[in-house]
Specification:
- The protein is of the alpha/beta class.
- The protein contains 15 helices and 19 strands.
- The strands form four sheets. Strands 3, 5, 6, 7, 8, 17, 18 and 19 form an eight-stranded mixed sheet that branches. A six-stranded parallel sheet has the order 13-12-11-14-15-16, sandwiched between helices. Strands 2-1-4 form a three-stranded antiparallel sheet, covered by helices on one side.
Length: 421
């Protein structure tokens, strides 16, 4: 059958085209993709082409379908998997296959990715547990399970000494400790704030730092300090543009003790250096940002490693259990990822959106892969009275105070134009 997909043909060469999919084998699944949450990682991939470790060579001969944060509906099930799946089941894809070469769904293969109308999921991915059942009430939330799972992975990967005089470590962020999220005004920072407030392992103090006051103000409206307090977390927002070195003022917020867990969400040498300074004894710095430059480095204070037991960890992506946990948090409404969905678009406008992602403000950009629609901010939809379609969408969003939701999605899926196939 025919699919329409955005594929990468080379460096910054992204094209939406239609082509024939092969018939599925007895150990494969044919899926209809509903949503893909656009990720900055795809922008980074586009800048490097085959030089990126997750992309194969010869992209000009065999272009690759992009989009790794996706979900949809199973259309056809190969004979091998008929006891596990059936047509009509909703699913969420876990892109990480756990391969040594890091090849993943939505990065590395010619027939599977979120930026497509239909994809073929191969046996390797199914056997690896990368096709997860989903019972939530919206597709866009499922598409954000992957980025949420990356946040969960980071929270799990941090570690601390169980006892000051022992060498045994306990995994995860410190319960009741001091946590800082540096450069936390983007979508991943937003999810981390939500999870820190509502998850099982809560800090006592959570400090979120950024350089743009408008972004900080938006976060404060989405995640109010009062709501955090009700959940036992003291939440503080800090604009670091006020300081040449933010480490001193940040440490003061802990009474000089320093932070137990520091998440660094920007790949900037100066930011990393200052973030290290705010670590307390046995503090763990998680370098969460993914740098484009393979030679990115920053100085490490070995004095503090030796005498203060500070340590570092980095996480990239997540595993299947993280995805299962993320899906559960979404299904049970523990974390509200709708707050992070700030833009909506159709498959036809994905290439230019991906290539412009760093300069587009707001949070997650949600692609409805079956639709043709220009990139539009949800806040702009709240002001649009130009058509009957726009007025209907505006009315729905007004009820949710401008938060994208299942009702808005259902309306969009019913009324927005389909992409040509």
């Amino acid at each position: 059958m025919k699919t329409t997909a955005m594929r990468i043909h080379g460096v910054r060469d992204l094209r939406v085209t239609s082509f024939e999919l092969p018939e599925i084998q007895e150990d494969e699944l044919l899926v209809k993709v509903m949503t893909d949450s656009l990720c900055l990682s795809t922008y980074k991939v586009a800048q490097k082409g085959s030089a990126h470790p997750k992309l194969p060579e010869n992209l000009d001969q065999t272009p690759i379908v992009m989009g790794h944060e996706f979900c949809g509906v199973i259309e056809k099930v190969g004979e091998k998997w008929k006891d596990r799946f059936k047509a009509g089941d909703k699913f969420v894809a876990q892109p990480n296959l756990g391969r040594a070469d890091t090849f993943s769904l939505g990065y590395s293969f010619p027939y599977v990715g979120g930026d497509s109308t239909y994809s073929i999921i191969m046996n390797e991915a199914i056997e690896a547990g990368c096709v997860l059942p989903y019972k939530g009430d919206s597709f866009f939330e499922a598409a954000m399970a992957e980025p949420l799972s990356c946040v969960l992975a980071g929270f799990k990967a941090n570690f601390h000494l169980r006892d000051r005089n022992d060498y045994d470590h306990t995994m995860g962020v410190k319960i009741g400790g001091n946590m800082a999220i540096i450069g936390g005004t983007g979508p991943m920072g937003s999810m981390a704030i939500d999870y820190a407030i509502h998850g099982e392992k809560k800090p006592k103090l959570l400090v979120v730092a950024g350089r743009t006051q408008s972004k900080i103000d938006r976060l404060a409206s989405l995640y109010p300090v009062e709501e955090a307090k009700e959940n036992g977390v003291e939440l503080v927002y800090v604009n670091t543009s006020d300081y040449d070195d933010f480490s001193g003022p940040m440490r003061e917020l802990t009474g000089g003790k320093g932070f137990d867990d520091v998440f660094v969400m920007v790949a900037d040498e100066k930011v990393v250096n200052q973030s290290e300074k705010i670590l307390g004894w046995d503090g763990c710095l998680n370098f969460f940002a993914g740098p484009i430059d393979s030679g990115f480095t920053a100085a490490i204070n070995f004095y503090n490693i030796h005498y203060k037991a500070t340590h570092y960890v980095g996480t990239s992506g997540s595993n299947t259990q993280d995805m299962i946990d993320a899906v559960k948090l979404i299904e049970e409404k523990v974390v509200n990822v709708g707050k992070v969905a700030t833009h909506i678009l159709g498959l036809d406008h994905v290439p230019e959106t991906i290539l412009s992602l760093p300069s587009i403000p707001g949070g997650k950009k949600i692609c409805y892969s079956q639709k043709a629609y220009p990139l539009c901010a949800v806040e702009d939809m709240m002001k649009d009275d130009s058509t009957e379609f726009a007025r209907g969408l505006k009315e729905i969003l007004e009820k949710s105070n401008g938060i994208w939701n299942a009702e808005a999605e259902n309306y969009f899926l019913e009324k927005a134009p389909d992409i040509e196939k």
